[in-house]
Every structure is written in structure tokens, then in C-alpha cells.
Amino acid sequence: MAVRRGNVLSIESTSVQDYVKVLYTSTEWQDGAISATFLATRLSVANSSVTGMVAKLVGLGLAEHRKYGPISLTPSGVALALAMVRRHRLIETFLVRELGYGWDEVHDEAELLEHSVSAAFVERLAAKLGHPARDPHGDPIPARDGAVHYPAARRLDALDDGHTGVLVRVSDDDPGVLRFLDRHGIALDDELRLGRRPGSELELHAGAASAPLAVDAALAAALWIESTAPHPGCTVDEAA
Q1: How far is it between the farthest Cα atoms of the chain?
Q2: Residues 209, 192: contact at Cβ < 8 Å?
Q3: Helix, strand, coil tally for the chain in percent (to 5)
Q4: Average pLDDT of span 145-173
């Protein structure tokens, strides 16, 4: 059942809320087409379940989908997704700041809580936290009106060695990466430099780390860096 509450379409089904949120966050930091197979993998459900839910989203006016084509959100779907993302990230922030959770622990907890709290609670939580602009992983928290600000950041595996910048976001898809950074004393807003070891293996230099860290595929895909200075040989636009 769909009802209009303020400027946001509220859907009673938690499954609908989960689907629109995944559709939004999956292309939040990088472009890409979302397929039914991708959703099935991301949500750990059968393809047949995705087919039925996508049809429901289309019927509710939240998504657009042509047979064999990509799935995308309508403006109403984006509004609902932003409301859910706001809830999720405010709850994650509260759990870390006020309850002492680690940034590797909060995602699953927030997934449960975001469906249980009221809109009024969310706004009081935002005020209590001082209306934070980002969550513990660096993901922007949408404002109440849906406005979102993203830093001019690039993923680590898209940068050349020698590049210097500030760590502004860490994906929470792999909690192991978050724990790895904790062990080496690396946090958001730390300045990092990408180097290269003999044999062409990439390494990461951080002020708090006692030694350069080897960069594997998981780490390279999880870190987002905002440049502080152009790399020699790059234009300013390329280094942004």
C-alpha cells in the first residue's frame, strides 16, 4: 500500500524500501546499469523474487523497467530511496558516536532499525547529532529535503601511483577492509599517498601507519580519495 506523507512517498513494505535503497546506492558513487540478476545477488534472493518485486515497483510508480533492460528509479522512487538512505546513515552515525559501535558493525544493525523508527524519530535523531553531513564510512547523509553533496573523490584503483589525497569514503561492503584500516590506524580525513613497490605492486602510505601497506583488490575497490594536489603529469581536471 502506498500513501503520500509530506513530500515523500511512504511504502509499508520493508521489501519495497530495501529494493529502492539498493537501486539508489548501487549507482550512487559510480555509473552502471542495474539488472535483475544484480539485485538478486545483492539482496540474496531468487531471480523469480526480483522479477515479482520489480513489477511491483513499476506498478507503484517507483521504478521503470523494460523487458531485458536495466532497472531505474522514477522521481518518486528516488525520493523514497533518499528517505531510507537518510534513516540508515543517521542510525549508523548514532550507533558509532553514542553507543560505541565500530564502523564495521553498524550496517546490519541499521538495516534492522531503519524500518522500525518513525519520521519524527529520524528528525529528532538528526538534531541530536547536529545534522551530520556524512555517516561513519564517509557516505553523505541526504538532507531532509533530499539534497545530497558528494565530494570530488575517485576510487583508489582509478588513481596512478604517486597520487596524494584525503580519504573521504570507505565502502562498507566488506567489513574486513574496515577492520584492516582500524588495525593500521587509518581513518577518514587521513592523507594518503599511493606508491609502487619493486615488482609493480601498489602500496599505500599513511601518516599514522608505521610502514606502507600493500594494496590488494579489496582495498583498492573500497577506498575513495579526494585529491589534495595534482600528480605530476596530470592536468588539474584529471587529478580532481
Answers
A1: 60
A2: no
A3: 40, 20, 40
A4: 93
Residue type, 192: L
User: Which own/partner contact pairs does 84-87 have at CB distance under 8 Å and 24+ positions apart?
Assistant: 84/17, 84/20, 84/21, 84/114, 85/21, 85/24, 85/25, 85/141, 85/142, 86/122, 86/126, 86/141, 86/142, 86/143, 86/144, 87/114, 87/117, 87/122
C-alpha closest to that of 169 among 105, 223, 107: 223
Q: Is the pLDDT reported for residue 238 higher than 70?
A: no
What is residue 169's DSSP assignment? E
Question: How far is residue 66's CA from residue 68's CA, in Å, rounded to a whole number?
Answer: 6
User: Tens of pLDDT along 64-111?
Assistant: 998 888 999 999 999 999 999 999 999 999 999 999 999 999 999 999
Residue type, 210: S
Buried b (16+ CB within 10 A) or exposed e, 89-105: bbbbbbbbeeeebebbb
In this prediction the pTM is: 0.86
